[in-house]
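Tokens in:
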């Protein structure tokens, strides 16, 4: 029976919608297998293949590959925009020529365990409805596919489990498109559990904008560039012990659900990009992760778990410090200190507001007041942990203006000495920056207000000069 889609149509009807009437035909899988065994070219477009497409390796001629002889498919297989209703099994087979399943729907289970694709392999826009195996799931037997030529999986949909465990990609592996305008249209979608554990990407790996559920890349090796920008990981994601030799791009990727682990991963590339990444899962683990390149950035990344933010930004800060990139180093230092403050407080970790904190115990209230109010406002926002002199100057100037307005409205200076708005403004500047009052005299309780401004303003001004000198002397 044809598989039913959510819209009520069968897979056959969906496939045939854009096909000419003369091409809508059914072909028995045994006829295709017979053609393959004879070493003839297989080429069909917009057909429905009935029965199981299961190739017995014993029926094929053998080709010498190094010290071994392998059963080989010696002619191209081109089955495009078609539906294969039965199982597809090509185990331990050498494909000597190109394989093209572009736009084809695989209704039943698919297995290419142990097969070698010597030339280009195209699964672009294919749809796998059941479990798909490019590697065996028996840990005692290491059988995995090898893509010697370029592999194209763009726009492919995997509905269920897919296994690329230990699979070798000798050349470019395309599950997405590097072109930003095309990346979202060319993305692959993995709806079930996806395994790339121990996979070897010897060419460029493209996973731009791809969508994943539970995903495992543990121990995978990326010998050239790896692109995951704008990718979405919705379940638990495991990049534990992965190896990146060149440029690595996770820009604007999203990790949700149970989070992601990059623990013990090694990034050798000169540039590792985690900018704008959303770590919205329970964990964004970078423990024992090594960044040995020249540049790594978490700029504008958002962490749900602040201890992960602290560790990731500290690692990035150390790398950038060695490379002499002071601006990015200071940014990551700021984000590291921000994460530390939030962990010390209450509101950032528990989501409690002021009203909630007032109802809790005394110590919780004081933690909220010290870290979520005082340190957040004065140390983080105003002083900027000593890395934002312009922020500090802007706040100092704002304080000067506010105090000047207070003096002018309430008449805080002797009336004979200050009559215009600029007199009050000048008095406020002099009070905040110098020990004197610039020939003006505060009256009544404004003496106390002027004293408060003198303390705050002098401290802020001294901090600004120190921060400014520190920043630009380097």
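Residues out:
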């Amino acid at each position: 029976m044809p598989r039913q889609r959510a819209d009520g149509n069968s897979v056959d009807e969906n496939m045939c919608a854009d096909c000419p009437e003369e091409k809508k035909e059914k072909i028995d899988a045994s006829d295709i297998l017979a053609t393959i065994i004879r070493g003839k070219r297989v080429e069909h477009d917009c057909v429905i293949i009935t029965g199981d497409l299961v190739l017995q390796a014993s029926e094929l001629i053998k080709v010498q590959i190094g010290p071994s002889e392998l059963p080989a498919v010696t002619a191209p297989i081109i089955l495009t925009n078609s539906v294969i209703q039965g199982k597809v099994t090509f185990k331990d087979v050498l494909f000597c020529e190109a394989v093209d399943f572009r736009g084809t729907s695989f209704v039943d289970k698919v297995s290419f365990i142990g097969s070698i694709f010597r030339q280009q392999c195209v699964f672009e826009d294919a749809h796998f409805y059941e479990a798909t195996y490019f590697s065996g799931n028996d840990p005692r037997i290491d059988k995995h596919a090898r893509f010697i030529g370029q592999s194209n999986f763009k726009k492919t949909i995997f509905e269920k489990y897919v296994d690329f465990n230990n699979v070798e990609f000798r050349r470019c592996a395309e599950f997405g498109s590097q072109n930003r305008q095309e990346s979202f249209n060319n993305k692959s979608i993995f709806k079930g559990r996806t395994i790339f554990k121990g996979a070897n990407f010897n060419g460029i790996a493209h996973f731009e904008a791809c969508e994943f559920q539970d995903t495992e890349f543990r121990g995978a090796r990326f010998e050239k560039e790896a692109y995951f920008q704008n990718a979405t990981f919705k379940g638990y994601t495991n990049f534990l012990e992965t190896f990146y030799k060149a440029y690595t791009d996770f820009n604007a990727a999203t990790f949700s659900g149970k989070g992601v682990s990059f623990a013990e991963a090694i990034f050798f590339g000169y540039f590792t990009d985690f900018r704008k990444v959303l770590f919205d899962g329970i964990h964004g683990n970078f423990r024992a992760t090594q960044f040995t390149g020249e540049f790594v950035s978490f700029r504008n990344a958002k962490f749900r778990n602040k201890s992960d933010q602290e560790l990731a930004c500290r690692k990035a800060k150390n790398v950038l410090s060695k490379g002499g990139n002071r601006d990015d180093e200071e940014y990551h230092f700021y984000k590291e200190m921000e994460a530390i403050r939030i962990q010390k407080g209450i509101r950032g970790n528990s989501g409690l507001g002021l009203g909630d904190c007032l109802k809790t115990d005394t110590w919780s209230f004081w933690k909220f007041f010290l870290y979520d109010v005082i340190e957040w406002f004065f140390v983080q926002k105003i002083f900027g942990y000593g890395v934002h002199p312009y922020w500090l100057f802007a706040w100092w100037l704002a304080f000067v203006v506010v105090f000047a307005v207070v003096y002018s409205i309430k008449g805080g200076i002797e009336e004979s000495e200050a009559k215009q708005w600029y007199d009050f403004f000048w008095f406020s500047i002099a009070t905040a920056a110098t020990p004197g009052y610039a020939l003006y005299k505060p009256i009544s309780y404004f003496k106390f207000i002027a004293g408060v401004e003198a303390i705050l303003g002098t401290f802020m001004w001294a901090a600004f000069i120190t921060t400014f000198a520190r920043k630009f002397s380097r």
